[in-house]
Design a protein that fits this description.
A hairpin with a 4-residue loop joins β22 and β23. This protein has a seven-stranded mixed beta sheet. Strands 5-8-11-16-19 form a five-stranded parallel beta sheet, covered by helices on one side. It has a five-stranded parallel beta sheet with strand order 7-10-13-18-21. The longest helix has 18 residues. By secondary structure, the chain is α/β, with parallel strands linked by helices. The N terminus is likely disordered. Helices cover about 20% and strands about 25% of the residues.
Amino acid sequence: MYFALVYILHYVPWILQLNNQAGYLIIDPEEFPDIVRSLQTGALQYLFIPVKMPDGRIYKKVRTNQQPCNRPIGNKPHGSYSEKRCKSCYIADARVAEEMKQCRRILQKLNFLDRSDSEAIAEVVHSLINCEGDAWINPPFYCDYGKHIHVGRNFFANYNCTIIDVAEVTIGMNCQMAPNVSIYTAGHPVHPDTRNTAFEYGMPVTIGDNVWIGGSTVILPGVHIGSNTVIGAGSVVTHDIPDWVVAAGNPCRVLRPVTDADRRTDFRHRQIDDEAWRQICAMNHWDPDT
């Protein structure tokens, strides 16, 4: 069956290059999508490619790699993950896998701690992500690396937050995330022939200061959310959202600005009671009568 698969290449120009030291093929996925797909299954150890060589030979024995996700596929080998993740497509390599293993060890500890041990949780959170000041995450929490996540002081993420931090995720101070918020920086090519080569990419996500992200919101790669903005529950944020707005929906869109009229309201424009308002004013050094 495999021989039949590659036999069609008899009339295709030979552009395969064998790397004898590494023991794998470097293949142009656009020219040889069927071979790329076959190699990715990990099922083939050798391919017998029938082609006419300059010296008249018909068959060429080519050794493939046993780890399909770790080999370059394309005209050139990919560079290191840290260099490539935001500049162009890349294939995750062994270094990436090791970084993810280290992150998962920390996540295992965080997600199985005694939920009443706030000091232990805070300590693990600070070892996992880059925190400018106080930060609190209600486990369970999930991410790929942790070290690509940067949060300002007074950060809070509620239960079941997921941050796929292939690229940098930068979050300002006083940001709050409701349960089930997901931030994705990773993406894959749209066309299946390209996507099936295992190439992917990363685009950074930035969130300003004083942002509230509603429950079950999904933030997609490359998005910037401005400061002092509220994202409604269940939103899918596909494009940038400006400062000082309320936005919601799928796709997320601006509904209205945040104004001074919102200062003394809570649920659906309900006015905050006098006692609570006096405390809020004292905390902010405001005059409650103005």
